[in-house]
């Protein structure tokens, strides 16, 4: 697909859909990871410092895994596996 000259409308639509899927699935994965790590803060009465650390860790892990998910989906699409 890369370097094939001009793209047809179907190819452009496929790229658009794949980017949308990559972003949506990354947001979902990021949210699930954040909720799993930071969720105990909402359930239990934890010390303030520990609660903040869990929220920061959940945010960092969620963002990192979201980026990994986008890269993985788009690389797979570029190879033609998806």
Topology summary:
Elements: H1 9-43, H2 48-79
Structural class: mainly alpha
Average pLDDT number = 88
Query: How would you spell out the order of helices and strands?
Result: HH
- Helix run count: 2
Q: Helicity range of the residues?
A: over 70%
List segments where confidence is low: pLDDT < 50 over at least 5 consecutive residues: none
For the secondary structure, the number of strands is 0
The N- to C-terminal Cα distance equals 12 Å
* Biggest pleated sheet: none
Give structural attributes:
single chain, 82 residues, mainly alpha
Protein described:
- The protein is mainly α and 82 residues long.
- It has one domain (9-79).
- It contains 2 helices and no strands.
- It has helices at 9-43, 48-79.
- The protein is rod-shaped, with a radius of gyration of 18 Å.
- The mean pLDDT is 88.
What can be said about this structure in brief?
The chain has helices spanning 9-43, 48-79. 82% of the residues lie in helices and 0% in strands.
